[in-house]
Amino acid sequence: MGLLSIIRKIKKKEKEMRILMVGLDNSGKTTIVLKINGEDTSVISPTLGFNIKTISYQRYTLNIWDVGGQKTIRSYWRNYFEQTDGLIWVVDSSDIRRLDDCRMELHNLLKEERLVGASLLIFANKQDIGGALTPEEIAKVSVLDLCNGLEWHEGAELGVDG
Length: 162
Hints:
It contains four helices and six strands. It is an alpha/beta fold.
């Protein structure tokens, strides 16, 4: 199930949603946002703070907060948690050596009280690169530990997209 359909269920009457897009550095967050918005992706530099893009889709307005993922700025992610409706966690499917770091950071995020109630989409990016893990393999690595350590609420769904 895609992120938009998950959010529709939660916020049927509201038309503006705040989406927080995070992940490790170089996972492709900015490229994803620019591609969705139909913008040029030929020259992209690392995000040293955040970018906000507003995307209108059907009757919805999505305010996507694309936050940099460098290790030195991850501690500032918490400044963006308030009123988040959806969380997109972007995984570089080809960066197998940092998969444990990726899982650990996602687990830390999901312990944050201010993110309770936000829908989660794990986006398995860079599927076109040889040797990349499949979305199913990403889900096994990311989700197995999640299910052991977190409380799931009735009707909770987890989307993994690639």
